[in-house]
Amino acid sequence: MSASRPLSPHLQIYRPQITSILSIGHRLTGLALSAGTLLLVWWLVALARGPEAFAAAQGLVGSWLGRLLLLGWTFSLFYHLANGIRHLCWDAGYGFEIKTTTASGWVVVAASIGLTAIAWIAGLAAMAG
Amino acid sequence: MSADRLRSPLGRALGLGSAKEGVEHWWLQRVTAVALVPLALWFVTTLVAHLGADRTAATDWLGSPLTAVAMILLVVATFVHMALGLQVVIEDYVHHEATKLVSLLLVRLACWALGAAALFAVLRVALGS
Fold this sequence. Notes:
The structure holds two protein chains of two kinds.
Chain A: H1 18-49, H2 51-62, H3 64-91, H4 98-128
Helix pairs in contact in A: 1-2, 1-3, 2-3, 3-4
Chain B: H1 9-14, H2 22-49, H3 55-63, H4 65-93, H5 97-126
């Protein structure tokens, strides 16, 4: 293959943009959610197995490590959900202008942070009350 | 709309396409994505509402037919969507043919196994253990 053919800019010298960052973020959160699914299955199986297994599972969920994983899982879920809806809009043929993709990108950022915050405030309030 | 309508007449006649079933992969990824929008929102909401619940409350929750059916749909849609998504990530980044083949097989088999375990757990609790 000739080295003089035109090459697309390499990632390392390509200025990061909201669109490219969100794009790789969709993959990363997809991977994170896949890992989180392992824990969800483990929790469901523990619930089915009986009180002792369930108590152990609840113990992990309640620990600081469990809380941290759950925080990452909620954020990944809301991010993948919001950006997934953005992808579905593109699939339907809407929102391809550069201005629109930038704006919808920031909506995804705001929505995923906002929804994560709402879920945690509601959850912590429910635990306290 | 069936996935077949997205093929060109010539492509349909020749049976060509990405590995012969690119459209099915793409379409199923979208169908499960659309299904997961309400299912994921429902799941996070019900999770937040049941935080800190003991095992009796958790089994009562899963014992409700509506919850059980929604959980079954969530598990099926999640694992189909996850298997398709992880497949694309492997195909994009793993270039060594044998490693790619083994990874694709393992991911697909793991998704089936985890999905089966999750469904069995849901049914066992829902139908009374």
